[in-house]
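Marked as duplicate of an earlier ticket. Keeping the data here for the record.
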Amino acid sequence: MNIGKLGVWAALDGPICFFENDRSAELGRATAPRIAEFARRIETLGYSHVWFPEGFGRNSLVTASWLLANTTKLIVATGIATIYARDPMAMRGGADALNEQSGGRFVLGLGVSHREAIEGMRGHDYSKPLTAMRTYLDAYEAAPYMAATPAAPTPIVLAALREKMIALSGTRTQGAHTYNVTPEHTATARSILGPDKWLCVEQPMILEPDGAKARKIARGELELYLGLENYRNSWRSMGFEDADFENGGSDRFIDGTVGWGDENALRARIDAHLQAGASQVCIKALSADGGTDMRILECLAPQQG
């Protein structure tokens, strides 16, 4: 599988509005026809991958199947499918089937999610997430799969923020998928992974040159993550302090994790990650109304340069 330098990261359960010029479609839950239309649009724009999360909406493997069935070249990647939602045999059965059915256009992104979701909503033990991931990968590799074998093994990447999970992704999988990180974190992750592994970096983007307006949108985006233990620990490891997390996040924190400005500024942030060692930058295009800002995806599209 060839991995392009630019992908798209988008929440596909909603509330969301994909097309800025389509105000007849009110901001709301994304229907199956609309996410298929979105996937075809970003495929036309030349992006190599679409990444999407798994939370409390659609099963991520079901969503992946729908997107693959509605596109012809786009690579579909879970970003991420949580290991606490399916046992290893079920995960392998779904992933290898998608790989085989699509002719090799599926990437399985695996992750441990967050304590608040896993213990608080799913009722699982989250005391040792690194051990849980290692054990899960052992069972996944040993799981039988008796259907038609994919032409090539299904690529797996791990959601990884801290050093030990990044190292595990480098030794056991194709690479790492990072989220809400700085270019400096990307450089650190590359040094841990070595030169040959994938490093797919999610990057929130806001097409807004006014700093006050851009930071307001960014604070709305990061509000949820600021309440999650694993993200706060990750940001502390990047040099941010607890004071940076107060009142919606300091300007230093916001500017470090969210790319904003005009088109040139957004391209500069992408280049900073690529120069730091990212294999692919997964653009999360943020609009003021909580939707996906298609202007960003159109102006940064690979077919545009």
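See parent ticket for discussion. The mean pLDDT is 93.
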